[in-house]
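Contributing new records

If you add data, match the layout below exactly. Sequence lines come first and carry their own label; structure lines follow with theirs. Keep one chain per record. Anything else will be rejected by the validation script.
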Amino acid sequence: MDSPGYERILRLFADVRPREGATVLILVANIFLILVAFYLIKPVREGWLAVTDIGDLSKLEIKAYSAFAQSILLLGILPFYARLAANWSRNDLIVRVGVVFGVLLLAFWLSQPGMLLGKSPIFGILFYLFVGIFSVTLVAQFWAFSSDVYGAKRGARLFPLVAIGAALGATLGSWIGQKLVTMPSIDAFDLILFALIPLGMSLVFAVIANRRGTYGDPSSWTTDRWQEPAAPSGNGPYGLILKHRYLTVTAIMIMVFTWVVTSGDNILFGIVQSTLSDELSDLRNDPRAFSLAMQESTAAFYGDLYFWINLVTLVLQAFAVSRILKAGGMQALLYTTPFISLIAYASMAFVPLLGLIKVLKVVENSSTLSIHNTARHMLWLPTSKEMLYQAKPTVDTLFVRLGDGMAALTILIGTRIFQLTNFGFVIINIVLVLVWIGLSTYLHREHSRWNLAASNPARRTSRELPPGAIQ
């Protein structure tokens, strides 16, 4: 069968087979729009928090405590979300959750300082909590839906291409937000309203993908899923994660890798501040000038850093991920980023130069956002629908936040109790990377076993292989 021209172009990025191109592009557009919406409201979150005053707490303390509160909030929200998934079809779940987020965005826009409710610090905190939950919930829900649409075999081929939409959305969303806020007629809080546009469009694309299935000619599998609950049973996310060792180790791996990357970001921040402070030492006699110079230099450094991270992420996602997968399989995807991190932190330990560390962090973070993100979403391809819609959102939200929390705790204990230097924190990260590699080794072996069971139900002999695994 001859393929249309656009499918031949898509094969530059992944193994797209005849009649698969249209649904792939719809899903690429879906995740692209979700990430655009998130990156439009993300700077509003930081700006709102910057003008939120609570007693004598510093802005850093407010942000840290808000991040901790986000984890506590997720503990209660995720079981409720799991119950919704057990009662609503996947289409209803996606649309209704998206509409609720849209209504909340509008409510937050109305509650901005100087609008209907005056200036109250509670709304800045609530918006910070909301944005964190918005991003991880909608992204986790999208990947669960995509896994449901494709199953294990097709998902393994097509996920590297679908993930390009996420990289494009993050890059273009940041750029659009920067351009909009420079316009005299647009206030920063108006980005919340602009985010409603890509959010609404993403829901439309999700509905279309749900109706089409893989090929646009819905099979009985697809039509059955129109009416079935997203997760046919409701055993709850925590019970599922604890019951299946594969899910337990996946959750721990997600926490550890987040811990490593966030700790690395904290180490970089400390080195940046120390280096810039030395470079600007001639301004110390003028505290105001020194503070302004530090602020501007830090912003310039991170602006350049994020640009290169986004650019390299996009290049890796478009041209490297599918080729790494084809050459070395799932094992190569799982190992690439932790070995990059191991090399990066070993280099930091012995050559602590800011320029080198910046390059290493660009490589590590972009690899995390492309190669490793694709790998961790593919880990769920051979699991059951119940696991996709109940356990996956929990792992992708709560355990990511727990990793952030462990990184913060590491800094707190290491600084306050053990007076560790940057070298000490780098050594801790090297140990954590070795744990990460060990967990990846186990997950590669178990992923192969679950894939075999998903493709051949007769060979499901282990009690850890779910009877509802997607085929």
